[in-house]
Amino acid sequence: MSFPHLLEPLDLGFTQLKNRVLMGSMHTGLEEEKGGFEKLAAFYKERAAGGCGLIVTGGIAPNFRGRLAPHACQLSFPWQVKKHRIVTKAVHEADGKICMQILHAGRYGYHPFSQAPSKIKSPITPFTPSKMSSRQVAGTIKDYASSAALAKKAGYDGVEVMGSEGYLINQFISSRTNKRTDEWGGSFVQRARFPLEIVKAIREKVGKEFIIIFRLSMLDLVDNGSTWDEVVKLAKWLEREGVSIINTGIGWHEARVPTIATSVPRGAFSWVTEKLKSEVSVPLIATNRINTPEIGESIIASGQADMVSMARPFLADAEFVNKAAAGQSELINTCIGCNQACLDHTFSMKRATCLVNPRACYETEINFTPTQHKKRLAVMGAGPAGMAFSVYAASRGHEVVLFEAKNEVGGQFNLARKIPGKEEFDETIRYFNNQMKLHKVELRLNTRLDLDVLANEKFDEVIVASGVVPRALDLPGFDSPKVVDYQQVLKGEVYIGEKVALIGAGGIGFDMAHFLCERESSTLQPDKWLEQWGIDKTYQHPGGLTEESEHKPDREVYLLQRKTTKMGKGLGKTTGWIHRSVLKQHKVNMKTGVSYEKFDTEGLHIKVGEESEVLRVDNVVLCAGQESNRTLVDDMKSTGLPVHLIGGVDVAAELDAKRAIRQGAELAMAI
């Protein structure tokens, strides 16, 4: 498939972008690391060389109080310019363009010096901001302009002004957070003064031939957010003040609606960008859950937007655009929207990377150079760890034979992709399948690697990636055919009744509850998904919210855990709340502090504290973790060959594809 609209240049008058693809802003953590700007330069350079039309950096504060965290990056002084030049030089050497995002955290600042239009604490930070004085407001506007001027001096092609996602500018715009009675509050005209004065001041400082992108919150997804009429007015005023491009912002960080997780339908919010398209003439960028060139092409070709923004897809594959241009979209390592190695890392103060691409943000540290000592390697198990190792090792020149006892590759991903909202895992299996063909990995399906094979063929080393098996529980009645494990359910090997108890409330338990309650995935039905989460496409209410649809669950499900801690405490930092919300929508009964006694014809006998109870269920599904599948490990070691364990067979923690793929990559680099 060709992508003529996606790859068409965009003329901004004083400069031209080589295509319609924007690499959206994302914080990597390299901005604060020692020597991080050199690593950041390598990261961005690969994306520029990979064909991206325009890159936007992670958010850089215009002053100290605007920082996201105490040691977060800012650009306020001339001596700070030097390190930014390392980045811009690298991008320009690769024939790319790059803008610096200016972001003032406002009340989202994770430090006691945060400021906001009003003294109102955010629900996602522990600090209450101080109210900005009129003088401080005026000073902050100057700081934005000074930061933009320094960005120009550092070699950036432009700046993006972060006016969405609930940060400072958004806080001024919305009556939800702006309770001021002076010239910066009250009517919408006065609340909108702050962003307009910022853009005006920046344009005066940097001149006409400098890109200014404004990230406009088109859909706040919070109560008392902006009305559609206010969004349109502000867009027109921004155009008048000289912005070059308007980027779409979706949802405040405190919104209780998922906006970028894997369960969000692809391109779920392009309709709101299209809604603004007829109101302004400045180019518009659509964003959120656009992860394939096919979706990007469709959005632009249909007239919904002039560009598409993709952030995490460029973590997954630096060569995204080049592969699309070469007609090789099947070779793109697609972002699955899991958040596990990017946003979860960022919000835990770790360096961001990517579950499906462990090289992301490690371009100077993880590289697969041609081997000087070619080896013949036997790999047992074609799950995430085995596939990743095989591809990376073969790319270095090793001869790799991958053995898989089943008739398909993918391992646990074949189960994960059956969960509603996790259909994207298909893409990772497709990617590795194609990479194995490209790098000539010899794949032997329906073949178990055993001692006979090793006796008849010559291998230099053995890599065991045989994964995990579900953990069984030895309790009275648990040998009943009505007590099954999660793998049997997902494989369709057993019949499950209308009343079910799930033992174990980790990630597997939550996924199983979702699977049993939602027989038709709403992720594959965008309008149904929008209705499910109370998003109003007609935009009749401020913030774009309406009532969530009433949902009749397909089954009566109990989710049980032994621990007395909060249900789902160990889930992903940025996605756990989504999983809990979904189960609440499906009316799943969640019980903590449960001990299990037996299963019989009455049902599952449990105790919660000192209270005994019988759950009259048709089935019990075991989701109580897993154990390493080490059946043949000792056999492999008995051969005397070097044996390496990677993935679940090494550590059978909560299913962890991020660790499995990274282990495969690191071993392939070292072997």
TrEMBL record:
Residues in FAD/NAD(P)-binding domain copies? 376-653
Which keywords does this chain's UniProt record carry? Flavoprotein, FMN, Iron, Iron-sulfur, Metal-binding, Oxidoreductase
Q: Which family does it belong to?
A: In the N-terminal section; belongs to the NADH:flavin oxidoreductase/NADH oxidase family.
User: One Pfam family for this entry, by name?
Assistant: Oxidored_FMN
The record's annotation in SUPFAM superfamilies points to: FAD/NAD(P)-binding domain (SSF51905), FMN-linked oxidoreductases (SSF51395), Nucleotide-binding domain (SSF51971)
Protein name per Swiss-Prot or TrEMBL? 2,4-dienoyl-CoA reductase
Give start and end of each NADH:flavin oxidoreductase/NADH oxidase N-terminal domain.
6-327
InterPro entries documented for this protein:
Aldolase_TIM, FAD/NAD-bd_sf, FAD/NAD-binding_dom, NADH:flavin_oxidoreductase, OxRdtase_FMN_N
Cofactor(s) for this protein?
FMN; [4Fe-4S] cluster
Q: Which CDD domains match?
A: DCR_FMN (cd02930)
